[in-house]
């Protein structure tokens, strides 16, 4: 909900595609530079307590943004600064949250747990934009931010309510930099993980363009308001939820590389089709399919990694996943905002879709060739 309201607020204040991209850049850039350090923390501190600390900081951020908006004092630089602060929170929270799953389920249940976790996340991604779009129309952006702040209390209470075995400190030799290199080294030395992360990194850069520029398409292509924006983003969330439920139903770690490549290929096609379309009712199924493929790509990569990494390295290797999946998005956000001001939003999304198609095709050919050699 906050993402939708924030994007609409930025575009309402500035009417600039570049400012949309810049805000998204500062929201995600800390993940790129700090996630590896966050992974070291996740491997060496109490994950439950670290998550409580992170979500408490998220509560303060949302409350501050809400009060600034309600009092009419908010400016674009306020939003950028607060987005950057929330990005720091995400850099600590994401690798911790992903690795925390291994603390509460057994290894054989991890694929299903990851898919169910993604289902819960995407339920909010589906419902949040719809609700936020309506609320922005009738009460403005400020109450949405305040409501988001209050929801953190539920998350924090849930974490406090978990009764887990006593925490056992994990001791290891070496500096923080050495520990980061251990996580990076494992991810790079494992071929299936390495090429999957490479494809995910490309899609993280090019796939974020549509989300960042959605306010532009909403207003200029579909002549809509914040309610239409919420509906469009909600369609992507609905597709993402379907993708997560599909993976939960499959609940297996075989054939994941095929899922990863096919999802990136179809997602690229969806970007191209959306960029060339001006009919609202055609955009809806395209966005549902796009959201479906995005979740299949990300969750399958997550499962592939977690099924092959040891508990001692889990936090650090998952921080590599977070860096690639979320940390590379600010590059795409800034680039898409810049290109949209020069060549237009439609051509920017179309170009990025073609890049995704090319990368996915190479990935699938490589995977098939490798599989043939193995056979």
Structural write-up:
The model has no long low-confidence stretch (mean pLDDT 85). The protein has a single domain, classed as Growth Hormone, Chain: A. It is built from 15 helices and no strands. It has 375 residues and is mainly α.
Tally of individual helices: 15
Mean pLDDT equals: 85
| CATH architect. name | Up-down Bundle
Q: Tell me the CATH topology.
A: Growth Hormone, Chain: A
Shape: globular
Low-confidence runs of at least 5 consecutive residues: none
Distance between the termini: 48 Å
Proportion of helical residues: over 70%
**Main sheet characteristics:** none
Q: Structural class from helices and strands? A: mainly alpha
Rg of Cα set: 20 Å
Oligomerization state of this entry?
A: single chain
Number of domains: 1
Sequence of secondary-structure elements: HHHHHHHHHHHHHHH
Percent range for β-strand residues: under 5%
Number of strands: 0
The CATH homologous superfamily corresponds to MFS general substrate transporter like domains
Q: For the record, what CATH class applies?
A: Mainly Alpha
């Amino acid at each position: 909900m906050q993402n939708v309201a924030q994007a609409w607020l930025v575009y309402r204040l500035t009417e600039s595609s570049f400012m949309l991209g810049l805000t998204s850049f500062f929201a995600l850039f800390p993940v790129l530079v700090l996630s590896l350090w966050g992974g070291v923390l996740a491997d060496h501190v109490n994950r439950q307590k670290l998550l409580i600390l992170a979500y408490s900081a998220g509560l303060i951020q949302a409350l501050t943004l809400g009060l600034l908006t309600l009092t009419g004092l908010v400016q674009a630089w306020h939003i950028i600064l607060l987005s950057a602060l929330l990005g720091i929170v995400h850099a600590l929270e994401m690798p911790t949250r992903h690795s925390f799953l291994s603390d509460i389920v057994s290894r054989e249940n991890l694929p299903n747990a990851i898919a169910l976790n993604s289902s819960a996340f995407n339920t909010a991604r589906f419902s949040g934009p719809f609700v936020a779009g309506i609320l922005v129309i009738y009460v403005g952006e400020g109450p949405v931010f305040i409501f988001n702040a209050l929801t953190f209390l539920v998350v924090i209470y849930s974490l406090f309510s978990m009764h887990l075995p006593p925490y056992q400190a994990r001791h290891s030799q070496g500096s923080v930099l050495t520990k980061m290199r251990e996580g990076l080294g494992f991810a790079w030395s494992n071929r299936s993980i390495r090429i999957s992360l490479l494809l995910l990194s490309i899609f993280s850069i090019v796939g974020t363009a549509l989300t960042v520029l959605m306010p532009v398409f909403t207003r200029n292509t579909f002549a809509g308001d914040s309610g239409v924006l919420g509906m469009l983003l909600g369609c992507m969330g609905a597709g993402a939820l379907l993708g997560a439920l599909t993976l939960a139903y499959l609940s297996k770690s075989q054939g994941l590389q095929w899922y990863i490549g096919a999802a990136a290929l179809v997602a690229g096609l969806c970007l191209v089709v959306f960029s060339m379309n001006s009919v609202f009712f055609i955009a809806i199924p395209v966005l549902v399919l796009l959201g479906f493929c995005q979740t299949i790509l990300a969750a399958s990569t997550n499962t592939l990694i977690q099924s092959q990494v040891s508990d001692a390295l889990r936090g650090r290797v998952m921080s590599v996943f977070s860096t690639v999946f979320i940390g590379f998005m600010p590059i795409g956000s800034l680039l898409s905002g810049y290109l949209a001001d020069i060549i237009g939003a439609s051509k920017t999304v179309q170009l990025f879709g073609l890049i995704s198609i090319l990368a996915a095709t190479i990935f699938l050919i490589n995977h098939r060739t490798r599989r043939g050699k193995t056979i």
